[in-house]
Design brief:
- Residues 115-333 form the Heat-inducible transcription repressor HrcA C-terminal domain.
- It comes from Thioclava pacifica DSM 10166.
- Keywords: Repressor, Stress response, Transcription, Transcription regulation.
- With 353 residues, the protein is α+β, with helices and mostly antiparallel strands.
- The protein folds into three domains: 2-87, Arc Repressor Mutant, subunit A; 95-137 and 238-347, Beta-Lactamase (2-Layer Sandwich), CATH 3.30.450.40; 142-236, Enolase-like, N-terminal domain (Enolase-like, domain 1), CATH 3.30.390.
- The chain is built from 13 helices and ten strands.
- The strands form three sheets. A five-stranded antiparallel sheet has the order 7-3-10-9-8.
- A hairpin with a 2-residue loop joins strand 4 (142-151) and strand 5.
- Helix 6 (95-104) packs parallel to helix 13 (329-347).
């Protein structure tokens, strides 16, 4: 950030305006911006030759690039970063956008999955990008746990929650488990599971196993350990990553292979909690431009992401928009920010307040 401040301080008012207008023109049209276009837009009357000289200086600083000989300029990734951090003015959320987002909260019956589906669809439609919504962990108290043998090398651990939801994980059990060892492991878990959430249960079970290891069969202990590991896998800590709006990224100017690569990354990404990690360095919206976005192999994209929180101000999920680097950041930032706040309030049972 200090390097960016140094570059900004090097720019006089004329250079700053040329830079701002080139970036805004590019974000608006996706096309290089030429000097003749700027002669009509600048607040100061300047010749095309003077503007070209300023553009060359900005190119030397690494802020602009010329994609074709004698063409206009486009911002580099560094230029976009500088614009977003130091020049861009974030718009207020428009009444139409606010109403569209508020409408996704209507008819909410406590079904978080349906709510997040509606939010994801609304985000992709409003921003013309792809929306990403990371659903929160399931934190209802546990009613019952059961192990089911599927094959000698595969077993299922089933969790029934107090709110009626059922989830399961397939895992590799210890070799030689028996029906009695599976019943023993399930009985041990159920004796302490009821009324506890999964996150509350984990530490408690580990302490109990250490205390009572000699009292339960070693095979049952191993079954509990391996079954719990299936739930403790970091990538399985969150129910799902909801993605909408693939078609929005397939404009004629886009590289189809790169877009396909992006969605391949999304669909095979097991550690989707990494998406949340991107948002955890602060409560507000974060913007990742091009190769700054380490979650995806695709470099020609930007991600605008914000976490949402529960009533205890704990980050439990995230919402975001991904698209080409020429996203309308000034409009999308307040949309993502408001959406995250809205989802957090609804999940916390506070309504739109």
């Amino acid at each position: 950030m200090s390097d960016q401040n140094n570059i900004l301080s090097e720019l006089n008012d004329r250079s700053r305006e040329v830079f701002r207008r080139v970036v805004e023109g590019y974000l608006s049209t996706g096309d290089p911006v030429g000097s003749r276009t700027l002669t009509r837009a600048m607040s100061e009357k300047l010749s095309a030759a003077t503007i070209r000289n300023v553009m060359q200086d900005l190119e030397y600083l690494g802020l602009l690039d010329s994609p074709h000989v004698s063409a206009g300029r486009i911002p580099t990734q560094m230029g976009l970063r500088l614009f977003v951090d130091g020049v861009m003015e974030v718009n207020h959320l428009g009444d139409e956008d606010r109403a569209a987002l508020d409408a996704t909260m209507g008819a909410n019956s406590g079904d978080v999955g349906s709510l997040l589906d509606r939010v994801s669809n609304a985000l992709s439609g409003m921003t013309q990008g792809a929306s990403l919504v990371l659903a929160p962990k399931h934190e209802a108290p546990i009613r019952h746990i059961e192990f089911v043998s599927l094959a000698p090398d595969r077993a299922l651990v089933v969790l029934v929650f107090a709110d009626g939801q059922v989830e399961n994980r397939v895992f590799t059990p210890p070799i030689g488990q028996t029906p009695s060892s599976m019943r023993e492991a399930a009985n041990f878990l159920n004796a302490m599971a009821e009324g506890r959430t999964l996150s509350e249960l984990r530490g408690h079970i580990q302490r109990e196993i250490a205390k009572h290891r000699s009292e339960i069969d070693s095979l049952a202990t191993a079954l509990i350990d391996s079954g719990l590991a299936a739930w403790e896998n970091k990538g399985e800590s969150y129910e799902r990553l909801i993605v909408r709006g693939r078609a929005n990224l397939l404009g004629s100017e886009d590289d189809l292979d790169r877009i396909r690569s992006l969605f391949d990354d999304l669909e095979r990404k097991r550690d989707i909690a990494e998406f949340l990690d991107l948002a955890e360095d602060g409560e507000g919206v974060r913007i990742f431009i091009g190769s700054e976005n380490k979650l995806f192999s695709l470099s020609g994209s930007s991600l605008v992401v914000s976490p949402y929180m529960n009533a205890d101000r704990k980050i439990i999920g995230a919402v975001g928009v991904i698209g080409p680097t020429r996203l309308n950041y000034g409009r999308i930032v307040p949309i993502v920010d408001y959406t995250a706040q809205l989802v957090g309030r609804m999940i916390s049972g506070q309504g739109k307040g």
